[in-house]
Amino acid sequence: MHKHTWLYLLFASLLVWLLAAAAQPQPVQAATDDSLTRIQQKGTLVIGNSPNYPPYEFTTNVNGKEQVVGMDIEIGKQIAKDLGVKLVVKRMDFDSLLVALETGKVDMILSGFSPTAERKQHVDFSNTYYTSKQDIIILKTDKGLYSDRKSFNDKKVGAVVGSIAYNLVKQQMPGAKVVGMQNASDLVLALKAHKIDGIVKDSASAVAYANSDPTLAAIDGKFTVSGAESGNAIALPKGSYALQAAVNKSIAKIKRKDQINKQFLPAASKYISTGAKTHTMWHYWTYFAKGVEYTVGISLVAVIIGVLLGSGLAFVRLGKITWLKKLANAYVTFVRGTPLMVQVMFIYFGIGTFYNVSAVVAGTLAVGLNSAAYVSEVFRGGIQAIAKGQTEAARSLGLSQRDTMRYVVFPQALTDIWPALGNEFISLIKETSIVSIIGVADLIYQMRIVQADTYRGVLPIAIAMVLYFIMTYSLTKLLAFLEKKMHHEVTV
Length: 492
What we know:
59% of the residues lie in helices and 12% in strands.
């Protein structure tokens, strides 16, 4: 076994233990249940939501401002009103919602959630507020080929990962190959590109897509779904009985007044129609501008974190303090050996359980810490590449070890590693797209909002691609200018 392997394993085990402890739901006994009181005292009701599921929840542009709208949002507003608090919508990927609820990032999940048996093991549910069957979205030109779920043998069928539809495809369409994606807009884009043959979605959502796009059609999938799992309910933390009772009271009032059919769904359909008829991307320029702003800001801060921490790690690894060298080596090895996406989720959901950190801070910190591991290797390699004769000559002239590094070795190393360092900076801009999974409004996140609002897949992607190119090309030119200047100063 490698002499440092035990340290790497210890480091990994510690992180896994911390994440497991953070994700463990803490049941609350009825006698000490303060779930409702806590929300009323803080004055806000935070709901977890994945706004890419019209008419339940989706984003739209209202008077130039981005808003999350839909049936579920209206239900959330009614519940918040009944509780006497303000509604706060926290947006993130659908398959991150359960983790967010279990780790206390949100007070409840209101996002077209079905109360499956598996989910009930981790969270409690309110009474069902809406019941709908599952349809299959197909291309209108293929309408004669498919009649229901049994028509898709040897075909590719898409569904949002983590949804009831995804499980239904696996369980009741054995002859089909399930294709899971994070976003409904991506599924529609894949369908239009003939990458998949159908999309299983809640009928209300499927009809909304079909009515908004003349190339699509919705057919009844004829799935067999149990009474509880066929409906939508609100997910709540385990043991939050007081909050559950209050939510059920609001749901009963909404049902009694038939607000979903009379108010919430018609209002959502109006927004869908407005977004679908918007023919120019210029209407959404503020979305893309906001995405660029977040992407540049996160990249800039992450670069500073990466350079400062990365250079420090490099000097530690080149130093003589054994235990610090081992710790730095373990950090670099572990970070380089795990995906950035996992690191983002760990910091936001895991460490964020012990200290309430925002999605922007968590995403920026994760990207910066990840970059530091690679920057460390760049610095270490550049310093070690400087000939030993340079150090010996400097020391013979009376320079201290610190001055030798500062005035002789490091300036030469920086000149040599600049291209590799610049490449890391450019890659970092593109890697910031990962933070969209926890709801950070970067360029990718804003692109998905435009897709959901306009029901267009390719054009928003093309615009985002051009914007990323402009950012990276501008940085490339700046880095080239600085590199040329450094070489000129060295030559002089």
